[in-house]
Each structure stands twice: as structure tokens, then as C-alpha cells.
Specification:
The complex is a heterotrimer of chains A (287), B (395) and C (238). Chain A is of the alpha+beta class and 287 residues long. Chain A is built from ten helices and six strands, in the order αβαβββββαααααααα. The chains are: A alpha+beta (287), B alpha+beta (395), C alpha/beta (238). Chains in contact: A-B, B-C.
Chain lengths: 287, 395, 238
């Protein structure tokens, strides 16, 4: 009998002790919350009860949504969702029935998420559900994702456009600087030509020089880009408290950057040197 | 004489000068775009917010207007409280919802605003008749095209729709009385407006005496921030957002673009600087003999530097002018990309042309041109004259 | 026509140039070169001095010190009674502008300016009003026999003509002293003779001239020769 009483008391105590919720890092930081802290959650500011039409099996009935005292049971890090990153929202996770009670939703949800067995035919399943569904509709997750990721698509397009403009601009800069540097060597080139060195030999030597400079420059650029990428991720991950990677340097990207700069560097060198070797050497000397 | 020397020096190497000007133009274009991006959103959003003269917006506590489905209850009570403040001139409660209109065998949905037409600030009325009666609805051109309707048509409008059973709830017959341009509407988005009482009635008990948003116009000369604080004291269930706060919130959401603008702008400026420095260095190295002679015949170091720096400035200025045109073209292209942000009001521009932006970009470029020319020029002008002449003689 | 009074600048009694035990050393890679080793000499007003010697004897270095475009390692240099060896760069530049005219072996005209503009350049620096400097530049070009070449760029002039423009430029601000470093070095014999004649005319009109030269004809045309070897004056002190 004693054990039964104790057992009943324990169950009662468990039922009375506050339930737990999970909050995200941003909220924990902003509201200065730690594990084990007690908080009151309510669907309305002020924490008072408020009247609602609660959904039940019988339909909507009038009721009251009351706040609930809960304990912070976990502090979580949000997933890497780019559309959430700059919004500054907080995330709270609680048991379904808790939220239904606190919000006055009653026996309602916004959506069901369904995980299927690996062998399931998703398309057929969606059709079957929609044939018998009443008051809701089923969609494949990836179809929803396309719709909700429009923000991300716009940002991606913008990045691509900026990337393209940057490449064009960099090409112009590279061309300018290479031409200027080759021009600087006009007297050397003139002296070589006067000595009897052929045009092609002169151009060849400049190509080799330009290629070496381009290779070294590309290597330095890749290193700088990689370091910048690390910094960008460190900065934005800390700022938005997200594991999302904002910048990734991949092998294809490195290959494109290096190839382009090699092409431009050598091309600019060739253009500039061809101009100079066609000019009479004495004119290059300024006579 | 110095300006003439600088000009003649630039003309002497036309191809080189043109190339450098082109490079600076590209840098200038990027710099201008980034300056426009860093201020554009904020400015165009601010213009949008103040366009109808409403100074304060009230949203459910902790939210931004129309950020969530939450609504503010007790509209009548809140309105009565607000009327107690003599600084408040006009109050416009707005209820937002979605409507569905059957057309043939398809359903056309649209956002709808329940407003009071005498104090509304959400749309610019274009033609027809405003929603002066309970059964009137105005729509934007996009919705009218979707419906294939004309002014005067009667529409069966519902606030609820079950696609499975194809049943409508909250349905009512409304007459399309006018066309309007919805200021906060995104492009390719349906929008409409009815009287607030009409929408409340259609939505039923769940939305009775509720509003998504209040828009408030303060008396001329009153301080909106003081009014805002008063509201938050006396009506704790709402967040009162001034234009400045709203802009700050949006700024924070879109801070990524400002930071990007800052970084790319700085890089453009640096590259432009590098270009001018390289050109000036090359030019000066070629002329070390001439520079030594100028110093020998008594031209002061400062004047030599001035002449060389003038060349740098001339290139920067020419590049800046060309870059201005180029920058405006690329800004339009980039703005078109970002305007596709879902839900972004059509009136918002990310790249807003402002004369200030041009002056800032120009100023930065000229300063950069000066800075870029000074060091190589000073170095060249400071070389020992005898040494330079001897090297020239050997060369 | 330039007359003697126009070219005079300093008090009559002090020598125009006075060097006392001047030394000039400079580093050449790891070595130390003693370009001048204790040179003492004077040049009087109205004098025409040629400094001669083998290559590397220090004659150009000596000229540079007199022209205040270099500073001695030790010793003193006076031009027109004024100490110049311890001047700041700014003071030295101003001094050169108003007191010294340079003529170089390679002419060193500004290729982007016309003959007239080249001659006017030192006057522009001296803030002479535009009209006045154009007029004087034209006079100087006429003096050197190039009044019909005012608008020509250096690339459109022969070597001799370029050197005459350079001489006119050297006279722009009525200097106390004209210094010439191998002025006939890049010219053929005939043209060189024209320049030599011009220098003689300048001197006859009262200009004090110091030339450094390998050219025997030019050296012979001078009133006084100073011989140098290994950084020292071996003959021709005054």
C-alpha cells in the first residue's frame, strides 16, 4: 500500500512539474536564458488568459488559452537555412500538445511531415492521399522547397551577376596593368631588337615572363581568396549564429580563376609585346 | 604650365592613358553601384513609408507589419484609446487576409486588405469608384487580368477555400468598382481591397474586431517618437513602429547587402588606386631624366609632384565620368535581379540613384587618384638629381 | 639682345664660384668612390672656364657641386658669395632657379613642349607673368638664332637647334652662372662649332660660364682651363 501511495505521489509530482522546451542560441543569448531556467510562455503578450475558439473533434468550441510555465530543457543551434539567416527570428520547440494548448489551436496542426520507407513510390502515395484527403493537400517536399527557396534563388542570381561583373572588371584591370608593365620595358625591348634578336624571340620571352607572373599571381590570389572565404564564414556564422557556410572555395572555382588569370595575363603580355616589337627600336628609344 | 605639362604627358601615350582610363572607369562603375546599393534600399523604403504621410505603424507585439498571420484584437477599444492623444490626427486600422474567386473551373486567389477608404494609405486609386459601399471591391491590374473581369462585374468572393471538396466559406457577392495601384504590393502579385467591416463579416467570429495593422498619422509639428512611446505605454499589446524603426529593422534584415556593398566598394577603390599608381609609376620611371632636369633647372619638388599628381587626377576624373554611365547601366541590371525577391514591394529599389551617391563615389575616386599619384611622384622628385642624370646618361 | 647688366647678379668683388677643399665620396656597390679629393678653386665674374680631364676624373661631379644639384662630403661651396653646400633641398632648388643655368650634353628638353614653352619653363616656375615670359622667351630664342622655330617640338629640331634651345632656357631667369656639361658631346663638328661660338658670344656679353668637356675646340675657346685627374685639380687653379 505504501509503495502504491508513493507511486501515485511520484506520478502526481511528475505531472505537476513543469514541462521542458528547447530554445535556440539567439534567444538564449538575447534573453539571457540558461538550461533549467523557468519561463512562462503565452501566445499573447502580457501572459494573460485569452478567449479562443478551440478546435475539437466536435467542431470549434469557445475556450481559454492559458499561459504555461516551462523549463528550458535544451539550447539548440538552428540548421543552415539561408532563408532564415538574416531574419533575426527566435526559434522555440515544444511538445505539440503544449503549443496547441497555449495557442488555443486545439486539435489542429499547420501541416504533417511524412517520412516514407525507402521503397515507397512517393508520387503514387501523394495521389492516394489527395484522393481521400479532406481539408488538406499533400505535396512532395522538393516541390515545396522550390517555392520557398525563391529568396535564396534571387540571392544566388545576384551573386552570380556580381561574380560576372567582378570577372569582367578584373580582366580589364589585369589587362591595363600588364600592358603598363610591358610598356615599362620598351627600352629593353628596343635594345634587344637593335642587337638583332628577332621579334618572335622577344615576344616569347615576354610570354614566359607573363606566364610566370600569372602563375605566381594566381597562386597568391587563390591563397588570399581561401583566407578571405574563411574570414567571411567566421564573421557571418558568428553574426547570424548559424552553421550555414556563406562562402566555399571548391576545386572547380580555383580551376576557373587560375585558368582565367593565366589566360588574361599571358594574353595581355602578348598584346603589349606585339605592339612594342612592331614599333621601330629607335622610336622606342624616343628618337 | 603644370596643367599643360600634365595634359601633354597624358596625350603623349594615348593608348596607355586610354587603357588606364578604362580601368578606372570600371572601378568607378563598381564603386558607384556599391554606394548606391548601400543607401538605396534604406532610402527607397523610407520614401515608400512616408509616401502616404503615415508616421507610425502598429503591429501585433513583437512582429513587423504583415510579417506573421497574427492580428491585433479589440480594434474599437484601441481606436478609442488612440483618440485620447491630441497629437494623433488620423487612425487607419487595416485587416489583411486572402480571398478566393472562382473563375470557370479554376480558383483565383488574392491578398485582400480591409480598410476604411477615407483614411487608407495602402493604395493609390486609379479609376472607377472606391470602396464606398459594403459590397464594393477594388483590385490591381494583375488581379483584374487574372479574373478576366471588367469594372462593374459582380464577383463571388470567398475568404476560405477547400481544394479537395472545392467548397468556399465566407462567400459573398462583391462588385468590382475600381482599379488601384497597391503601394506595398510586389510585382506579379494579386491585390484587392474591401471595406474592413465587409472583410470582418466574411471572415466570421475569428476575425471580429481585429486588425493586422494600424497606420497612424500624427499632427503636423508633433514628435512621432513621443507619440510612439505613449502608444506603447497605453497599449501594451502592440508594437509601435516609427519610420526610423521600420527602416532599421529592414536594414538589419538586409544588412548582408550593405556589407557586401562596403567590401566590393572598398575592393573597387583599391584596384582603381592600384591602377593609377601603376600608371604613374611607369610614367615617372620613364621620365626620371626629365624630372631630374626639371629639378636641376629649379622646378621645386612640390611642383614636380603636383604636375604628376594632376595626371593621376585627370585619369581618375575621366574614368569617373565614363564609369558613371557604366555604373547606371549595371545598377539597372542588378536591381532587376534583386527586385524578384518574393513579396518585395514594387516600389523598392536596391540601387537608388541619388546625386549624393555620385558625389561620394567621385570624391573617393579623386582622393584615390591623388593618393595614388603622390607616393611615386614624391619618390621620383626626391631622387638625387646628379644620380638620376648619371643614370640617364648611362642609359 | 642680352647685355652684360642683364646677366650680372652678385656683388662685383666676390668670386662667382669659390670652392674650398671640397671632397665628394659616394658608394658604388660595396666600394667607396672618392670622386673629388680636396678641390679648391675660384671662378671670377665674367670668366669662361673649361674643366677638362679624362673620363672618371670627377669633372661632372665638380660641376654638379657648383650647380647645387649635389652636396659635398666635406668642404665649402660658395656661389656669388653665398654658402650653398649646406642648403636644404628647397633652398637649393630656389637658388638654382634664379642663379644658375644648366646646359646638358643630351639637351633634356621637354619633348611635349614647344621650343618657346621649353624656354619659358623656368620663368613659369619663377612666377613670371605669362605675357612677359613669352616675350622674353621669344627674345632668347632670337638671341640664339631660332626665332623661326618657336613652335617646333624638340623632335622637329636638329641636335644643334635643340642645344641652342637648351642654352636659351638656361638664360631664362638671368642667372649669375651658366654651367654646361659636355654641351657639344652629342653634336657633329660643324654644329659643335656653332655652339662654341654661341658660348663665346654669351661670355662676351658678360655671362660667367663653366663648361665640362672633352672637346678640345670648346676647351680652347674658354679663357681658362682647369685640368683634373683622379678627383684633383692638377692645373689651372685661380
Amino acid at each position: 500500500m505504501l509503495f502504491t501511495l508513493l507511486g501515485a505521489l511520484l506520478i502526481q509530482a511528475q505531472q505537476n512539474s513543469p514541462r521542458t522546451i528547447a530554445i535556440d542560441e539567439s534567444l538564449a543569448a538575447k534573453a539571457n536564458l540558461r538550461l533549467g531556467d523557468r519561463v512562462t510562455i503565452s501566445a499573447r503578450p502580457g501572459g494573460d488568459d485569452f478567449a479562443v475558439m478551440t478546435a475539437t473533434r466536435a467542431g470549434y468550441t469557445p475556450g481559454v488559452a492559458a499561459p504555461e510555465t516551462v523549463v528550458v530543457g535544451a539550447i539548440v543551434r538552428r540548421g543552415a537555412d539561408p532563408s532564415e539567416v538574416a531574419r533575426g527570428d527566435f526559434l522555440v520547440r515544444m511538445h505539440l500538445d503544449q503549443l496547441q494548448s497555449v495557442s488555443g489551436y486545439g486539435d489542429r496542426v499547420d501541416r504533417f511531415a511524412i517520412a516514407t520507407r525507402p521503397s515507397a513510390r512517393i508520387g503514387a502515395l501523394v495521389e492516394r492521399i489527395n484522393r481521400v484527403a479532406f481539408g488538406f493537400r499533400a505535396y512532395r517536399s522538393r516541390d515545396i522547397a522550390v517555392e520557398t527557396s525563391r529568396t535564396f534563388q534571387v540571392v544566388s542570381r545576384f551573386h552570380r551577376a556580381i561574380g560576372l561583373i567582378t570577372i569582367v572588371a578584373s580582366s580589364v584591370f589585369l589587362l591595363c596593368i600588364m600592358v603598363l608593365k610591358v610598356e615599362e620595358r620598351r627600352r629593353d625591348i628596343a635594345a634587344l631588337r637593335l642587337m638583332g634578336i628577332s621579334r618572335w624571340s622577344v615576344v616569347q620571352s615576354i610570354i614566359i615572363e607573363a606566364a610566370l607572373v600569372a602563375v605566381l599571381g594566381s597562386m597568391l590570389g587563390v591563397a588570399l581568396g581561401w583566407a578571405a572565404s574563411l574570414f567571411v564564414n567566421w564573421h557571418y556564422q558568428a553574426l547570424y549564429r548559424t552553421p550555414l557556410e556563406f562562402s566555399i572555395v571548391t576545386l572547380p572555382i580555383v580551376a576557373v580563376a587560375v585558368s582565367l588569370s593565366l589566360l588574361l595575363g599571358i594574353g595581355a603580355g602578348v598584346l603589349a609585346s606585339l605592339r612594342l616589337v612592331r614599333t621601330p627600336p629607335l622610336v622606342l628609344f624616343g628618337r | 604650365m603644370r596643367a599643360a605639362l600634365a595634359q601633354a604627358s597624358l596625350i603623349r601615350h594615348r593608348a596607355r592613358t586610354l587603357l588606364a582610363v578604362l580601368g578606372v572607369a570600371v572601378a568607378a562603375a563598381m564603386l558607384l553601384d556599391m554606394v548606391m546599393l548601400s543607401t538605396g534600399m534604406r532610402e527607397s523604403f523610407r520614401e515608400l513609408l512616408v509616401s502616404r504621410g503615415f508616421d507610425i505603424r502598429l503591429a501585433p507585439k513583437g512582429t513587423l507589419p504583415f510579417d506573421t498571420d497574427a492580428t491585433i484584437p479589440d480594434v474599437a477599444a484601441i481606436t478609442s484609446v488612440l483618440r485620447n492623444n491630441a497629437d494623433i490626427r488620423e487612425i487607419s486600422p487595416v485587416l489583411g487576409a486572402s480571398i478566393h474567386i472562382p473563375v470557370g473551373n479554376r480558383d483565383v486567389s488574392s491578398a485582400v486588405l480591409g480598410i476604411d477608404p477615407s483614411v487608407q494609405g495602402d493604395y493609390e486609386f486609379l479609376s472607377g469608384r472606391d470602396v464606398t459601399t459594403a459590397d464594393a471591391i477594388v483590385a490591381n491590374d494583375y488581379l483584374i487580368r487574372q479574373l478576366g473581369a471588367r469594372i462593374g462585374d459582380t464577383l463571388a468572393v470567398a475568404t476560405g477555400y477547400d481544394p479537395q471538396t472545392r467548397t468556399y466559406t465566407g462567400q459573398r457577392k462583391l462588385v468590382l468598382t475600381g482599379r488601384a495601384r497597391f503601394i506595398y504590393g510586389a510585382a506579379e502579385q494579386s491585390a484587392s481591397a474591401v471595406r474592413r467591416e465587409t472583410l470582418e463579416a466574411m471572415e466570421g467570429q475569428a476575425r471580429h474586431d481585429r486588425a493586422s495593422l494600424f497606420m497612424i498619422r500624427v499632427r503636423k509639428g508633433a514628435d512621432p517618437d513621443r507619440v510612439r512611446e505613449w502608444i506603447e505605454t497605453y497599449i501594451p499589446s502592440v508594437s509601435a513602429i516609427s519610420v526610423a524603426t521600420a527602416i532599421a529593422q529592414v536594414d538589419q534584415r538586409l544588412s548582408y547587402f550593405r556589407q557586401l556593398a562596403l567590401i566590393l566598394g572598398a575592393v573597387s577603390l583599391f584596384v582603381g588606386f592600384l591602377l593609377v599608381t601603376t600608371l604613374v609609376t611607369v610614367s615617372v620611371n620613364e621620365r626620371s631624366g626629365e624630372i631630374a632636369v626639371m629639378r636641376a633647372i629649379g622646378v621645386s619638388r612640390t611642383h614636380v609632384v603636383q604636375q604628376i599628381v594632376l595626371e593621376g587626377i585627370a585619369i581618375s576624373l575621366a574614368g569617373a565620368l565614363i564609369g558613371l554611365g557604366l555604373g547606371l547601366v549595371t545598377a539597372r541590371y542588378l536591381n532587376a535581379i534583386l527586385s524578384a525577391f518574393p513579396g518585395l514591394p514594387m516600389a523598392i529599389d536596391f540601387f537608388l540613384f541619388q546625386p549624393d551617391a555620385v558625389w561620394i563615389a567621385l570624391g573617393l575616386l579623386i582622393a584615390s587618384g591623388i593618393g595614388a599619384g603622390i607616393y611615386p611622384a614624391w619618390r621620383a622628385a626626391s631622387l638625387p638629381i646628379a644620380e638620376s642624370l648619371r643614370r640617364e646618361a648611362i642609359a | 639682345m642680352i647685355d652684360a647688366a642683364e646677366t650680372a647678379g652678385a656683388p662685383a668683388e666676390a668670386p662667382i664660384v669659390l670652392l674650398r677643399d671640397v671632397r665628394r665620396d659616394y658608394a658604388l656597390g660595396a666600394e667607396r668612390v672618392h670622386a673629388l679629393q680636396g678641390v679648391t678653386l675660384t671662378v671670377e665674374r665674367g670668366d669662361y672656364v673649361a674643366i677638362v680631364g679624362p673620363s672618371g676624373c670627377g669633372k661632372s661631379t665638380l660641376l654638379n657641386l657648383i650647380g647645387v644639384i649635389d652636396q659635398p662630403t666635406s668642404g665649402t661651396v660658395e656661389i656669388g658669395g653665398k654658402r650653398v653646400d649646406d642648403m636644404s633641398d628647397w633652398e637649393a632648388t630656389a637658388f638654382r632657379l634664379y642663379n644658375i643655368g644648366f646646359v646638358f650634353q643630351r639637351f633634356y628638353l621637354m619633348p611635349i613642349l614647344s621650343a618657346l614653352e621649353n624656354v619659358a619653363l623656368p620663368m613659369a616656375e619663377a612666377k613670371v607673368p605669362r605675357e612677359e615670359r613669352r616675350e622674353r622667351a621669344a627674345q632668347l630664342l632670337a638671341y640664339v638664332g631660332l626665332s623661326n622655330r618657336e613652335r617646333h617640338r624638340p623632335s622637329e629640331l636638329s641636335g644643334g637647334e635643340q642645344q641652342r634651345v637648351a642654352i636659351a632656357r638656361a638664360l631664362a631667369n638671368r642667372p649669375t652662372l651658366v654651367l654646361a656639361d659636355e654641351p657639344t658631346g652629342e653634336l657633329d663638328a660643324h654644329t659643335g662649332a656653332e655652339i662654341i661660338a654661341l658660348f663665346q658670344r654669351l661670355n662676351a656679353d658678360g655671362t660667367t660660364i663653366v663648361v665640362v668637356t672633352h672637346d678640345e675646340d670648346l676647351a680652347s675657346a674658354a679663357r681658362r682651363k682647369i685640368h683634373m685627374r683622379d678627383g684633383k685639380v692638377v692645373d689651372g687653379h685661380a
